[in-house]
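Researcher: We're teaching a course module on how sequence relates to structure. For the next exercise, students receive a sequence and then see the predicted structure as tokens, so they can try to spot secondary structure elements on their own. Here is the exercise chain.
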Amino acid sequence: MASPFQNSIFHKLLSGRSARQVAPIAIMGGVSGSTFAPSEKLMNLPVVIFDFETTGLDVKTARIIEIGAIKYRNGVEVARYSTLVNPGQKLPPETFGLTGINDEMLDNAPLLQAVFYDFHEFFRGCVGVAHNAEFDCGVMMHESARLGMSCNYHVLCSLKMARTLVQCERKNLDSLAAHYNLTFESRHRSIGDILVTADVLWNMLKEHPELQTLGDLAPYQETMGQL
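Model: And here is the predicted structure for the students to work with:
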């Protein structure tokens, strides 16, 4: 089935020039997202757990430097998407301290307009999950709008779920990992954080079998819409 973006994405990357010298904006028209009935059972649907590493914490100005997403069906991984992203600017020192990602790692990474189409294709038609989804959804919406597209996905926030469902003092990923005896493949890197988020999600659902449908999970949905 043809994508709604198939004939509307334009990449204008100049050969022989550094991406940090030239970072043209691609025009990516169209809308991507996911809509499901409240009666749909979560475990019957494709679920994409996603995470962005960024240059900062302001969703309106942060630029993505890493995209990670893992697709699950009935709790089993079926595909994953991961890439570093050249933000077209120097990284603040605190970004390296948190993520271990530095400017040299991003010099030859693709610009966002070269990869965001693929990310949306990977995500389209799935239920999304992110830890502190307000941030990741905000970044996704602003970066998508910057590239001339809009999106509206059905996204659940595992942080909102943990605040209600898990009996531990703090609800960040480190505390939840300790609560469930989980270890990180890598911390503050997209795939490493996603794998722990997935295990936290499955544990919460196992502990609360009454949460079956998207209607049951509605209190934990992150609102997305037009900017």
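Model: If you want an answer key for the exercise: The CA atoms of residues 176 and 200 lie 7 Å apart. The chain has one domain: 40-222.
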